[in-house]
């Protein structure tokens, strides 16, 4: 099997590694808005058969059946991050790539990038995937990492990880979690440079409620309607949803995660707690600075995290947000944001907080690696550390 290219990409909460294989799987599964696919030259593209995935030398997909501008075309498909990678990999002089009819790239190229050519002098059509993706790149990378967790005994670097002494395994997870924390605080600090505490709370809350798939349209909606505008009584969830009708990514979305439902929940919060960011700030200012030590079970008991969780749910969000999503909101947005704003030092709370929405594969991996047990239950910190390891795919 040939080596697969990777790129480090700046995500919402810090850099992550994206493998070219993830992009190949997007093509294989047709995990993009196929109905809107056009080549760079403006020709309508239909995918009849994405082709046979080739894991050996040569084009990434063999024998694809496409319809370009109404004409059926059979040939190979090559996948790259950038159009320039065609020449960088010397495909123009490799006869194995002579039957490529479509060059799929993640990013669009500038005018200075030479067009791809085969040995026979043919120029394949180019499809740029990024504008067609239904999810952001970080969530695609995360999905791939979580699929890898299902085969933890088959991944070479994971075998090496599990062979490390327990103390070192635990230390690696903790180190990665600390890096994720710092990335999130740095990201929140940048947000506070361009908007007030109230508005950044409003923006980040909606982004988290949008999940990875609909985070971008939720962000645009929050920018268009500041908190004071958003809470106007005549503005309904349906109207807000319809106002961004073409932006939502609904394919394969569970009903409980539908943006219309999440918008309704947020409007109900605002009806009862229109000043929820100020309420949150006052509550978090009361948190005592604590050091990170001991197990999550002991920390939660000593610092009454269950009670704090209930107080935030009731006094800030009027119990309108489901607890799993509330935990995600607290960890992904509110604690890093409050720390960046100087309202509290939230690192220890963030590390030991209850895990939010997380795939079961995370629980199984942490248990398999002996990171979690009865005395050390799964926490946001252990989840974040494990995710960081898989996103980096190396020790």
Note the main attributes of this structure:
17 helices; 12% strand; two-stranded antiparallel sheet; single chain; 395 residues; six-stranded mixed beta sheet; alpha/beta; 8 strands
Question: In summary, what is this structure?
Answer:
With 395 residues, this protein is α/β, with parallel strands linked by helices. 47% of the residues lie in helices and 12% in strands.
What does this structure look like?
With 395 residues, the protein is of the alpha/beta class. The chain has two domains: 32-132, no CATH class; 139-392, no CATH class. Helices cover 47% and strands 12% of the residues. It has helices spanning 20-29, 85-88, 137-149, 156-163, 166-192, 197-209, 215-224, 227-230, 237-243, 259-272, 276-284, 296-302, 305-316, 323-340, 347-352, 360-368, 380-392, and strands spanning 6-11, 14-19, 45-49, 52-53, 61-68, 71-80, 100-105, 125-128. Helix 6 runs antiparallel to helix 7 (215-224) and helix 9 packs across helix 10. The two termini are 21 Å apart. The model has no long low-confidence stretch (mean pLDDT 87).
**Number of structural domains:** 2
Structural class: alpha/beta
Strand content: 5-15%
**Distance between the terminal alpha carbons, to the nearest Å?**
21 Å
Could you outline the blueprint of secondary structure elements for this entry?
Elements: E1 6-11, E2 14-19, H1 20-29, E3 45-49, E4 52-53, E5 61-68, E6 71-80, H2 85-88, E7 100-105, E8 125-128, H3 137-149, H4 156-163, H5 166-192, H6 197-209, H7 215-224, H8 227-230, H9 237-243, H10 259-272, H11 276-284, H12 296-302, H13 305-316, H14 323-340, H15 347-352, H16 360-368, H17 380-392
Parallel strand pairs: 6-7, 7-8
Antiparallel strand pairs: 1-2, 3-5, 4-5, 5-6
Helix pairs in contact: 5-14, 5-17, 6-7, 6-14, 9-10, 16-17
């Amino acid at each position: 099997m040939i080596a697969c290219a990777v790129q480090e990409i700046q995500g919402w909460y810090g850099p992550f590694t994206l493998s070219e294989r993830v992009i190949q799987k997007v093509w294989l599964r047709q995990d993009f808005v196929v109905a809107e696919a056009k080549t760079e030259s403006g020709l309508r593209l239909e995918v009849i058969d994405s082709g046979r995935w080739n894991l050996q030398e040569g084009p990434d997909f063999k024998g694809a059946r496409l319809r370009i501008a109404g004409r059926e075309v059979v040939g190979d498909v090559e996948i790259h991050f950038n159009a320039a990678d065609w020449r960088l990999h010397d495909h123009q002089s490799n006869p194995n790539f002579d039957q490529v009819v479509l060059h799929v790239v993640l990013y669009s190229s500038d005018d200075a990038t030479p067009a791809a050519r085969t040995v026979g002098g043919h120029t394949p059509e180019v499809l740029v995937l990024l504008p067609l993706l239904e999810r952001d790149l970080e969530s695609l990378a995360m999905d791939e990492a979580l699929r890898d967790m299902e085969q933890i005994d088959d991944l070479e670097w994971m075998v090496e990880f599990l062979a490390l002494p327990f103390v070192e395994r635990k230390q690696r997870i903790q180190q990665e979690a600390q890096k994720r924390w710092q990335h999130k605080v740095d990201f929140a600090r940048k947000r506070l440079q361009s908007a007030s505490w109230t508005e950044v709370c409003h923006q980040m809350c909606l982004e988290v409620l949008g999940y990875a798939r609909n985070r971008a349209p939720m962000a645009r909606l929050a920018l268009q309607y500041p908190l004071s505008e958003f809470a106007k009584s005549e503005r309904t969830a349906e109207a807000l949803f319809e106002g961004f009708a073409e932006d939502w990514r609904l394919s394969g979305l569970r009903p409980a995660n539908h943006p219309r439902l999440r918008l309704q929940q947020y409007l109900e919060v605002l009806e009862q707690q229109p000043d929820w960011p100020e309420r949150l700030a006052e509550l978090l200012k009361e948190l005592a600075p604590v050091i990170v030590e001991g197990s999550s079970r002991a920390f939660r008991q000593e610092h009454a995290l269950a009670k704090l969780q209930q107080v935030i749910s009731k006094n800030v969000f009027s119990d309108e947000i489901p607890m799993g999503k509330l935990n995600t909101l607290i960890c992904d947005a509110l604690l890093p944001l409050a720390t960046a704003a100087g309202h509290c030092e939230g690192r220890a709370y963030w590390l030991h907080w209850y895990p939010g929405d997380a795939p079961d594969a995370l629980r199984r991996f942490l248990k398999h690696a002996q990171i979690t047990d009865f005395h050390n239950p799964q926490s946001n910190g252990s989840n974040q550390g494990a995710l960081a390891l898989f996103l980096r795919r190396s020790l």
